[in-house]
Amino acid sequence: MNFGQLLTAMVTPFDDQEDIDYNRTRNLVEHLILHGSEGLVVAGTTGESPTLTAEEKVELCRFVVEVADGRVPVIAGTGSNNTKATVELTKRIEAVGVDGIMLVAPYYSKPSQEGLYRHFSQVAAATSLPVMLYNIPGRSVVNIEPDTIIRLAEIKNIVSVKEASGDLDAATRIISQTPQDFSVYTGEDSLTLPMLSVGGAGVISVSSHVIGDEMKDMIDSYKRGDVKTAATLHGYILPMMKLIFAQPSPSPVKEALNYMGVSVGSVRLPMIPLDDAECSALHNMIDIYQQKKVASI
Questions:
Q1: Which of 57, 117, 134, 222 is catalytic?
Q2: Which residues does UniProt mark as catalytic (predicted)?
């Protein structure tokens, strides 16, 4: 299933008391849609899901669905390392009208491949929504092996994977051995263009909060066969992508948004804001990009 080519793993805006700020959330949704996002992933890791309560996740998803109003698909992160709790949350969030759910590999528990298969298949059986798997071994400390993803793709409503292992060989194998309508997205911003080149559907991005227009231009250039322009744009935006991930996400992207005038507040512990030196480097990079954008108009 294709949810679009450029999806954004959306941050969760907070107010000064670290409660979800719904006015800021509305503004952020509008900003993302205006600047190229074709889908929104809500309450994922970038949305600080480990620090959100189940009630907060349900209400946040309900609100984003209302604001998006069918303009772009809304995918909710409902995964955890507790299968029963994941099933319960998935059912509650399905009821608010999201278009799909994303299930991260169960973190910390380090289940076997068979355990992963049973976890994902049990959650998929509990919902009528399309399911996107999320493989991110750098954070979950368990890798969903290609064979397991290929096996899971046989389940009717498991339709996609966000592949954030950085392993293009694995992604290529998944693409070649799953049904034609099974979509593979990269979760690594810097691999957007390489993933497209091996048949991937696109990217679920963090950097698109900041450089969504440029990422959309790069993807569109590649899709219309202008590989040279796509490669040039890839080289142009790569430094910003690297800086957005220079410190644990989503601290850098939240700082970038705040600096750009899209207020999203700070992060919840155990995440911490950037220090002065880190802020300065990020601000300087944003200034350079904004100056170049103005100069090109």
A1: 134
A2: 134, 162
Domain boundaries of the chain, sorted by first residue: 6-227
d(CA 289, CA 32): 17
* Topology (CATH level 3) of domain 6-227: TIM Barrel (3.20.20)
Residue 279 pLDDT more than 90?
A: yes
286 annotated as a binding-site residue:
no
Integer-rounded Cα Rg, in Å, for the chain is 18
Q: Which of 57, 162, 216, 254 is catalytic?
A: 162
**Sign of the CA dihedral with 108 first, then 111, 113, and 119 last:** negative
The token duo for 118 is: 């049973």
Is there a catalytic annotation at residue 162?
yes
> Nearest Cα to 247, choosing from 223, 276, 224, 220?
276
**Sign, Cα dihedral of 262, 259, 37, 20:** negative
**Rounded-to-integer distance, Cα 116 and Cα 155, Å:** 14
Q: How many CB atoms lie within 10 A of CB 259?
A: 14
Q: What is the pLDDT of residues 225-275, one digit of tens each?
A: 999 999 999 999 999 999 999 999 999 999 999 999 999 999 999 999 999
AA letter at 146: P
Query: Given CA atoms 208, 209, 210, 214 in this order, what sign does their dihedral have?
Result: positive
Assign residue 107 a region (left: φ > 0; alpha: ψ between -120 and 50; beta: otherwise).
Answer: beta
Q: How far apart (Å, rounded) are the C-alpha atoms in residues 196 and 75? A: 21
Q: Tell me if residue 1 falls in helix, strand or coil.
A: coil
CA–CA gap between residue 105 and residue 119 (Å, rounded): 9
3 state DSSP class of 168? helix
**pTM of the entire structure?**
0.96
Say if residues 193 and 230 touch (Cβ distance below 8 Å). yes
